[in-house]
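## Example record

The block below lists the input lines for one assembly entry, exactly as stored, with component labels intact.
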Amino acid sequence: MNEMQSTIEKTVLSDYKYGFITAIEADEAPMGLNENTVRFISAKKNEPEWMLEWRLKAYRHWLGMVEPKWPNVSYPPINYQDIIYYSAPKQKISLGSLDEIDPELRKTFDKLGISLDEQKRLSGVGVAVDAVIDSVSIATTFKDQLATLGIIFCSMSEAIQKHPELVKKWLGSVVPATDNYFSALNSAVFSDGSFCYIPKGVRSPMELSTYFRINAENTGQFERTLIVAEEGSYVSYLEGCTAPMRDENQLHAAVVELVALDKAEIKYSTVQNWYPGDKDGKGGIYNFVTKRGICLGDYAKISWTQVETGSAITWKYPSVILKGDHSVGEFYSVAVTNHHQQADTGTKMMHVGKNTKSRIVSKGISAGVSNNSYRGLVHVNRKAINARNYSQCDSLLLGDRCGAHTFPYIEVKNNSAIVEHEATTSKIGEDQIFYCNQRGIDAETAVALIINGFAREVMNQLPMEFAVEARKLLAISLEGSVG
Amino acid sequence: MLSIRNLHAGIEGKEILNGINLEIKAGEVHAIMGPNGSGKSTLASVLAGRQVYEVSRGSIDFLGKDLLELSAEDRAREGLFLAFQYPVEIPGLTTTNFIKTAVNETRKYRGEDPLDAVAFLKLMREKMALVNIDQSLLSRSLNEGFSGGEKKRNEIFQMAMLQPKLAILDETDSGLDIDAIRVVASGVNKLRNKENAVLLVTHYQRLLDYITPDFVHVLYNGRIVRSGPKELALELEERGYDFIKHENGLAAEV
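Predicted structure tokens for the full assembly:
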């Protein structure tokens, strides 16, 4: 048994491939947080007065709040005065076109496998990318092409300048600044992120994506993403993220808001690979994120898919408010924790409209001495006739020093609701590994096969371009972990 | 092909195999029979390289290589195949994907290029027909929800795909009805040739009605106490294992 454990450990130990640092000068806010910091960020972005007021209101509200203590994670207190809230790589020229991006930054994204080159579009199926480094978006590809269909895809900073009416109307409409501690903080100091607007009846011809990169030291990243899908529209959006290896913890507190009107569909996929810290639990990103969508119209659909392999601590619950009648919410998640990583993640499905449906499939994989918790709420409103929910939470343990926990909350206030919950916990067995060995498959490959089999239902939800990478990532983050 | 000399092995300090000697040549079929607890499955596991078993003495030569020096996966890649008594389930992993990985890992070890999708499919179709297995079974999660017969047929299908030099069938007949045994046996017979060898590990004689062995060995208390032609199996069937126990009772005590 010990031998098996050591093999598991070995498989889980792997080097984080995205840990490099880009040497580039940065334009930074002074360390610490006060009203002046908020004003500094707003001024940097040349924001209108209403935006600054919105931020200040959030900031003042935040001052009176306390950090949530209920997640099943532990970490030393965060000193919010030790963080730099704004850091932008200095670029020589202002960005007129993609050709003018600083070569260092272009190289950074090339190294991460993200092409900022529109010419590299593969056989008709392209992915439009908004590349965000630290506090600013440095490039957005395929903007012009998308604009011909009326699709707006740009950085949040640009949206505030060019589409203030849309931003004013929807920003904070799904996740109010006062929602929770981290959403209030984000509302005060968010620096960039992506904005997508899909007009009525338009299906986005390509995947829209944002790639987030933290580079600078001692900074926090606070991005804000807003996606609005008008009646009968469709968009598939992808999000990826990485950070350098640093010994200190860095805070990432994002807010994502999705709005789907009548018959609109938003598919939101995340592959989260922030630096998880080293094998002794030193360093890594604190990923404290609020993601929520609202099916505002009838027959609207919002689907979250997440593959969470990174971060020292993950705290996030991509949720759906099912307001429109016949609306559908989905949550597919694979969360992997290794070494000292901690994850407390899940979803909330709020059934409000009639005949609403939700589906939750959560796959937790724990290795090392990590802790992996699923926390989910299914709430059926008094008026939500014929609500239907199916939840499935499976945990897979590698070794016997890690933990898997499930916290399902079910609140049903309407008798016509049907709510189902299934949960399983299993271990990778020595006999499974040996069976693979006996067919000529080594232990590492065997673990990858077993893990990917376990997560298959969720991986199948990912867009093709992402699925292959995500499969590899799952295997890599558990490399060295079985025998 | 396989040469076992004075093999002693056990688990957690308890010795189960007490000096096994066995010689298997290409083209031969050997049957190892014996009562429960005689060490049959231990022998199969030790040959396949299951780590929980410790070899304390003896040597095993497989095609000129020291088998005990090889990892379980390398033994498989060298051409040693074990059809499991209890095939393992892996949820979410299709049999097709599993066997494709196995075939290509083995090819890589031998310095060959991996089979592309077309070549792999062709090979699969050919072997499916050979062991009479349905495509739908292969698209399902490995062994998950398979009946006993389906599991064993899947083992023989994998054997057909990997084309081993030495196939060890561990109680492949256990839990199967006569029809299922026939299907499995016919698969094995089709795969036999002058280049490969089969080692059948079985409690009952009935499998030997369908796969005719060249030699039968009786294992008792971790030693081969009798070897003979296929008629030995019939004698065992007739007289039961008791006479073996009786004949060897004293020896075992010593």
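Residues 2-477 of chain A form one domain. Residues 459 and 467 of chain A are 6 Å apart (CA to CA).
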